[in-house]
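User: I'm curious whether this sequence folds into something compact or stays loose and floppy. Could you predict its structure so I can see for myself?
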Amino acid sequence: MQILKSYRETRAVQYPEPVSIVIVKDKGSRYNPMSASWVTFTSIEPRMLVVSIGFERYTYELMQNQEEFVISIPSESMSAEVEFFGSNSGRDMDKLKELGTLTQPATVIDGVLLAEASVNYECRLTGTLKTGDHMIFAAEIVASHMHADLVPRLFMLGPKHFGGLGI
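Assistant: Here's the prediction. I'll summarize afterward.
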């Protein structure tokens, strides 16, 4: 039996959920990472995904001027990065430098990969869709990378609470 509840109450029981990091270059050629939970795959051929970003985010502003970005799937060891990248604005600082996050150059696009992540996807923007207070950015995956040690991915276990699933 279902009972009527507020969106906030129902949203709280949807954890764990995947967490990702969107990395896009700014006008000063810095790479800005932002934590994002709303990333999903949408096509096998061509390989595509979407990310939903709020209009008030600096990353949204940057995505208006770029056609390439990276989606990084953080490893279990990256909870500090996910928390920091999601709680601080790249308008105010170089977030990668601030944490000393290890990166390596992307291979197809002008971007960086997070070296300790489980997976990184290099993406090229193919379209956008406005949805309320967010914009959905659709992209083709043009290169895929995986950590050499097959490290497990990080999940959001609750609001501002991250960890692995232990499986």
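Summary: The chain has a mean pLDDT of 95. Residues 79-87 form the longest helix (9 residues).
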